[in-house]
Amino acid sequence: MAQERLQKIIAKAGIASRRRAEEMIRSGLVTVNGRVITELGTRADSKSDHVKVDGKLITRPEKLRYILIYKPRQVMTTVNDPEGRPTVVDMVKGVKERVFPVGRLDFQSEGLILLTNDGELAFKVSHPKHGSVKTYHVKVRGVPQERIIEKLSRGITLDGKRTAPCEISRLRTTGRGEDEGNSWFEVKLREGRTQQIRKMFSAVGHPVVKLRRVAIGQVRDATLEAGQWRDLTPREVRLLAAVESEAKPRATRKPAPPRAAAKKTKVPATPRSANAAAKRATARRTDAPARKPSRGTRRG
Predict the structure, then answer these.
(1) 147: domain range?
(2) Residues 87 and 81: beta-carbon distance below 8 Å
């Protein structure tokens, strides 16, 4: 079998996403034939080489599993929690495969989460630039003005780094004044920083009251209730695997319009005496030195 990069082997084995696998390699948790590997470019053969992650030998990849779950509030989006809080993995009892959550959804938020043991797909979906667009319904305090929403859509600076442009559309509002009532928005973004949407709206004086993820790419399910889950259909898996097609094409410059051809003008004939004077002047100029050119809960 052809050799592959270590992070790809780890991801294929369902141990972690490719990004997490890279962190494991850098941390010295991966060995190949007893030798600790810290270089990300290292390749190995998963069938002939002994690859271990944190002391455990990678065996034949298990069956790939793709689960869509509606995470309730106050549930961690992790495999386990040191503080003993419930996790999304705790909610899929009976699943034999070692699935892990893809991406983040903070403790107080709710909505759709993908669980899988397919590290390659997880890497595609969660990539900050080319990954799936996530869609959220967000309830905020007050009624933000359109100029504020446009500002957030273009991107603002959070924690010293500018956010990528995103789509924000108003769904409904209660109240008239800027500080009265609440507003619901639909937010679509590819980037996924920690508590990004909450920080964005707090930065403009309209803190988030409720946040719900309603879609991952083109995958959505309005019938799932908090705590329920189901397996993805083959079509949904294909949609997530083809995530590159969601990426917006780069803006291209329009070609400049062709220039109009310069009009030819007739040069009036000059008298013979003038021609002779011009020839003498030309002869004097050619004697001068030339200049140098300048360089430019499973639902049943």
Answers:
(1) 66-246
(2) yes
Question: In the prediction, which pLDDT does 294 show?
Answer: 34
pLDDT at 261 over 60: no
Provide the 3-class DSSP secondary structure of residue 153.
helix
Tokens 């005496």 appear where? 273
Residue 143 domain flag: yes
- Predicted confidence at residue 275, as pLDDT, reads 52
Contact 173, 181 (CB under 8 A): yes
pLDDT of res. 105: 95
Does residue 259 fall inside a structural domain?
Answer: no
* Mean pLDDT score of the chain: 83
- Give the C-alpha separation, 137 to 184, whole Å: 7
Q: What is the pLDDT of residue 300?
A: 65
CA dihedral 95, 99, 104, 106 (to 10 degrees): 40
Do 152 and 200 touch, CB atoms closer than 8 A? yes
Q: List pLDDT tens digits, range 197-207.
A: 999 999 999 99
Specify whether the CB–CB gap between 119 and 12 falls below 8 A: yes
The catalytic position among 49, 81, 106, 221 is 106
Distance (Å, whole) CA 133 – CA 247: 9
54 given a catalytic annotation: no
3-state DSSP assignment of residue 220: coil
Q: Tens digit of pLDDT for each residue in 64-122?
A: 999 999 999 999 999 999 999 999 999 998 898 989 999 889 999 999 999 999 988 99
Question: What's the domain count of the chain?
Answer: 2
Neighbours of 164 (CB within 10 A): 14
Q: Please provide the distance, in angstroms rounded to a whole number, between the alpha carbons at the two ends of the chain.
A: 40
- Specify the 3-state DSSP secondary structure of 147: helix
CATH code for position 13: 3.10.290.10
